[in-house]
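Entry 14. Ran structure prediction on the chain below.
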Amino acid sequence: MSFALWPEYAIVLGILATMLAVMFAKRWTIAGYWAALAGLVLSSIFTYALWSSRLLPASLFHRSVSVDAFSLVINGLVLLAAGGALLIGWNDRRYGPDFPVLVLLALLGMMVLGMANNFIVLFVGIEMLSLPLYILAASHGPGVSGEAGLKYLLLGAFSSGVLLFGLALLYGASGTMVFTQLAPPHMILPLTAAGLGLTVAGLAFKLGIVPFHMWIPDVYEGSPLPVTTYMAFGTKVGAAAILMRFLFFGFSLATGWWGPAIGYLAVLTMIVGNLVALAQKDLKRLLAYSGIANAGYLLVGVAAHDLAGARAILFYLLQYGLAIMAAFAVITVVAKDRESLSVNDLMGLARRSPWLAAFWTVAMLSLAGIPLTGGFVGKFYLLQATIFAHQPGLAIGLVVGAMVGLAAYLRPLQRAFSQPVAEGVPERIRWPLASAIVLVVTAIGTIGLGVYPGPIVHIVNHSAAFYWLH
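Output, structure tokens:
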């Protein structure tokens, strides 16, 4: 069944090819970016071929790895995130020649998390995801970027220690490292409760759940824009995937242990994230708190602990990723040589570039959950999952969080269509071709998910139907 790992093998080949392209170039060259992009395309082809083969699911390495429709959808999402990050940072000398190599290394960790079914594979995936991002966050050297990388490294190391301690306690309580072999009713209760709590806390840090969220605004603000984009989308996909795998595989018969706690954290995260986003003036910090709130929305699907919740999470990850990539692509184009913008810097955007203002509008409306965008459909499916799970408190919390977030997203949208203070002919904004590709694809995808979500709904319905729960 080694064919099941062809998408991962393609990324490994892409990493080697990118490293060779960077090492043997006499001076700065775009060859590394093209090699990384070729690896993404090859992995995408293999992922699609596996999806069409109908030979899955496959269980490899003594049930440590599960390759199924779920893992293939996770592959597609993280490949999209990596492609967006590469295009937004395309051939920019500020990010260094090692930027595409580190993007692919983090991507491989995300793909490992999507198919993990073992404590060791879980931890390896988390570290493969995190270590390259520590370097990428500090890739601008001393200053704000170095501070962001150091904060991410220290807090990430602490959370990894918490996660590893929790996994060790669970192994001591169960005698197995495989998720699907865990039997909560027959495990040692004190060790199981402590191990489950510490493991979920470690994963909650990666996802940015309140109260484990304080690193996100500082790291987002200090990191280069393509890296921030990558963390905002790809890290959430990897963390949400392994949280679902861990809880739905290992503790699906003990939802009373973790379901209520996850629900309370979801409501707290949604409301706190959106409330604090209201007061932000820096666009990176605003989108950082927006990401925290959206992590709370994802937890709503986890707290529902059923197939409807899993389907809603997968759909929500896609629409959120498209919207957040569009938002960061607009910021990148407008900022030019700067690495951040304030909300007031968007004033007059509609005069300077009507098309950029249109893309910004699509991104903000989707994040706010306005109808005819993917964000509305994603929130609708999450709300539907809470109703199916008979959890009205979660439904109310989701609606309240969405209403609070509406004001946070409409404020920067209003600035884009307001008149600037300075008079005269507005300076035109030049569009890099790579960023233009990201904007067009994400805008079409966001509107398409809002108008005709049927094909994507079919895919996520199939991938969320975990075969071990039949």
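The chain has two domains: 1-253, 257-419+427-470. Will compare against last week's run tomorrow.
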